[in-house]
Structures are given as structure tokens and as C-alpha cells.
Specification:
Largest sheet: 6 strands, mixed
Distance between the termini: 90 Å
Radius of gyration: 37 Å
Strand content: 35-45%
Strand order of the largest sheet: 2-3-4-7-10-13
Length: 444
């Protein structure tokens, strides 16, 4: 069939004209009438031809080219239109080339859709989000914050008791949360719990407020049950929500803290942290499901000194088994720059395997873990640093003046046994070992 200002197809083709039945109109097949070979139709009513090809009403072109016609209420699928006038037509999957799109006085519209999604992520704090022009609903996802793990402590008897793991935060979602373009919508991102001795501090809730619904993902509530892991966040009333994983627990003579629970994921609850029993290493954190965050590994509780180290009290020098919560202890006041009597808040003592660092000088004899804290003067100002981060030029205070870390002899050794450290109101304490006296940091 030759081109005549209308539809054409360069392949082998056949035109079928059908009248007087439900299957009536002009039907174009290539190469022969069969299922899948209908390349065009022009009918008054939609239907299905005898070969199983569905067709719409009006002019329908599949895979061909239309030249210079005026199209009214046409449907063109995967075709090409060149130099044409188009009125009230629907196009799917094709291309429009060198053509003018004119909107008449009745208020025609051109709707352009894209698969691109704009995502805004808030990771801390609170504020407002403004709905863009044309946006009437959003997918809002919230994750609650995790609780802190517990810091280990002892009563001063020498027996250690490391802390339980913090629980993970909840996940909550509304897939089509109604919003109004131009309006501001409040959000708040929950903060993680801050570790305290003997307590798993709660994590904050995360919220996003729409026009009528607020998405709320609860943080882990924490707990005060020493050694027990805190539960994961839960309780959301949103359409989609999953609970966070629980923190692990400790028992026996464990020397490491339990693992933290993971946050919930976008399609499943969080995983629990690992328990610790009679071990020195920290428990593994819960492995995050898809869309979640993994729980932290339990600490090894090593900000400590060896058992030869003593603390100066009003009653003389005391070790880990003599020192009690509430005792006076000599410390350094950073505000006044003077030594003062401070108060013991906690006494920590653990048994396990550690890497110990010996720091020797005529004015200092210390044996501490790598993570033990020190109060030093660095570049003219007082600061805290760990043993492994001490550097040349760091000055440690003694009764006979300051000792430069660079002048000390430093060695490391593997050690299995007990270690200890107090926590004071001033963050440091006066230690004594093998006839030397110096100021050192305490366990947080």
C-alpha cells in the first residue's frame, strides 16, 4: 500500500477492511494477520481482533510513522510523529520531532512525568522542611536513636561487672504522607543516648509531621537494670513500622561489654546484640537488616591501671579493693590550677586479657592500658588524651614538676589479670606507684 499522506510502513504488510460486525474498521498487519502482527488500526470501538490483538478506538499506530496529519483523540504507542498538528491525543513511549505544541483558549495542559525522585535526609537536630511547588504527598521515613551501652563498674571489692548493650531505634514510614505545597513541616532527629555508669541512657524519638499525620520512630528507652541490655525502640502507630533490636546482656565474670542492638530496617525488625559470659572481649553488635544501622561492638573496658597503682586519699594510699564510692581522693582542679580533695563516684575493676603499657621515668612509674586517660599539658594548655595517643612534648604533672613523655621509657606487654580505675568528680586523680606520684586521668 503506497504512502498517501497518511500512515505507512516500510515492511511487508496487509490491509484488512472489516464491516458489519463487532470487529469492524481498518486493520494493518505486517507481514500477515496474526497475533502480534497488528501494526495499526482505525476503528469506531475498541476491541480484540480474531487473532488476539487488542486495539483502542480511533486511530492506533504501533511502530510506524505518521506524516503531516491532524490527529484528534489519537493513541500512538512507540511510534514517531514528524511535522504534525496534534489535538487531545495520548502518546506512550514514542518520540515527537520538530513539532509545535499549542494550548488553546480552553486551557490545554502538558503533563511531564519523570522517574527522578528528590530525597532530603536529616541526620541530626530539628527544623522545618518546605514542600516544593506541585508536591502534595511524600514518602516519609524515620529511624529512632539507639540507647547508650552501660559503662561497667564495681563496688570496690575487686569483682568486675561490665555493662549491657544499648537497644537500637525503631523504623516508621508513611508512603504517601499528605503535604501542601509551600507549607513548612517540622522534623526532629533523635539523639543517641550518652553513656553513664550503670545506666543505659535512652535514645531520642525521630518525628516528621505532615498535614494530618505525624511519622514517629521511637528510640530505645534504655534501662537501669545493670548488666541487662536495653530493649529496642517500639510503639509506632504508623502504617509501616519495625522495632529496633535489643542490646545484649552480660553475666558471669565477663570483662567486655555486651553488643548493641541494630536499628530496624525498612522491611524488618532490628537484630539483637550479642550477650557476653565469662569473656574479656566485647560482644558483637546486631547486624543491620536492609535499610538499618548495625549495633556497636561492646567495649573491652580497658581505661585502667594495674593493681600496684594506688590512689591518694585523706586516709593514705588505697588500691582497688580498699577504695569506696564517696571516699575523698586527691585530684587536680582545671579551673583553679590547684590540687584539691575530690570525691570517688565509682570504682571499676575487671579481670581479662589486656595490652599493658609501662611508662618509666625517675618521676613516674605507670603501668596502664592503651586506652587509659591522661591529663597532660600540650602546647600550653591542659587536655586529656589516651595512652596510645601520648606524644613527645606532652607534660605529665608530678610533685617535683612536669615530666615530658619524650623522656620516658615506654614498653608494651600482654597481660592477663585484674585492672582497675576510679571515676572522680574532677575527671582525674593523684596516683602512686613504686615510690612515684603523678596526676592521671580517670575512667569516664
Amino acid at each position: 500500500m503506497p504512502q498517501s499522506g497518511g500512515w505507512s510502513n516500510s515492511t511487508n504488510r496487509r490491509l484488512v477492511v472489516v464491516e458489519g460486525t463487532a470487529y469492524s474498521g481498518l486493520f494493518f498487519y505486517s507481514p500477515t494477520p496474526a497475533l502480534g502482527n497488528l501494526v495499526g488500526s482505525w476503528t469506531a470501538q475498541a476491541g480484540t481482533d480474531p487473532y488476539g490483538n487488542a486495539y483502542p478506538d480511533g486511530l492506533n499506530v504501533v511502530g510506524g510513522t505518521i506524516f503531516t496529519p491532524n490527529l484528534v483523540a489519537a493513541s500512538i504507542t512507540a511510534g514517531t510523529i514528524g511535522d504534525s498538528t496534534i489535538v487531545n491525543s495520548v502518546f506512550s513511549g514514542g518520540a515527537i520531532n520538530d513539532s509545535n505544541l499549542t494550548f488553546d483558549s480552553q486551557g490545554g495542559r502538558l503533563l511531564v512525568y519523570t522517574s527522578t525522585t528528590d530525597t532530603t535526609t536529616f541526620t541530626s537536630g530539628s527544623g522545618n522542611w518546605t514542600a516544593p511547588v506541585g508536591v502534595t504527598s511524600v514518602k516519609a521515613e524515620c529511624w529512632g536513636a539507639g540507647a547508650s551501652g552501660e559503662s561497667g563498674e564495681s563496688s570496690g571489692s575487686g569483682g568486675g561487672s561490665p555493662g549491657g548493650g544499648g537497644g537500637g531505634g525503631e523504623y516508621a514510614q508513611e508512603a504517601t504522607l499528605a503535604v501542601t505545597p509551600g507549607n513548612n513541616y517540622a522534623y526532629s532527629v533523635g539523639a543517641g543516648g550518652i553513656m553513664t555508669v550503670g545506666t543505659s541512657a535512652p535514645g531520642g524519638n525521630t518525628t516528621f509531621t505532615g498535614d494530618t499525620v505525624t511519622v514517629t520512630a521511637h528510640g530505645s528507652p534504655g534501662n537501669n537494670n545493670y548488666g541487662a541490655g536495653s530493649p529496642g525502640g517500639t510503639g509506632s502507630m504508623n502504617t509501616i513500622h519495625f522495632a529496633g533490636g535489643s542490646g545484649g546482656s552480660t553475666s558471669g565474670s565477663a570483662g567486655g561489654g555486651a553488643g548493641g542492638g541494630s536499628s530496624a530496617g525498612t522491611s524488618s525488625a532490628g537484630a539483637n546484640g550479642a550477650d557476653v559470659t565469662n569473656g574479656s572481649a566485647g560482644g558483637a553488635g546486631g547486624v543491620a537488616p536492609a535499610g538499618g544501622g548495625s549495633g556497636g561492638v561492646g567495649g573491652t573496658l580497658t581505661e585502667c591501671v594495674d593493681l600496684e597503682t594506688r590512689a591518694l586519699t585523706p586516709d593514705g594510699w588505697k588500691g582497688s579493693t580498699q577504695l569506696r564510692v564517696g571516699d575523698g581522693i586527691r585530684a587536680f582542679d582545671l579551673e583553679t590550677g590547684q590540687e584539691v580533695w575530690s570525691t570517688v563516684k565509682h570504682v571499676h575493676a575487671y579481670t581479662g586479657r589486656w595490652t599493658m603499657v609501662s611508662i618509666e621515668h625517675p618521676g613516674i612509674s605507670a603501668k596502664v592500658t592503651q586506652e587509659h586517660n591522661w591529663l597532660v599539658e600540650r602546647d600550653g594548655r591542659l587536655t586529656y588524651t589516651t595512652t596510645q595517643d601520648l606524644e613527645s612534648g606532652d607534660l605529665i604533672s608530678t610533685p617535683n614538676g612536669q615530666v615530658d613523655y619524650a623522656d620516658c621509657t615506654v614498653t608494651e606487654e600482654a597481660y592477663t589479670g585484674a585492672v582497675w580505675c576510679p571515676t572522680t568528680e574532677h575527671g582525674n586523680w593523684v596516683a602512686g606507684r613504686r615510690g612515684t606520684i603523678y596526676v592521671t586521668g580517670n575512667k569516664p
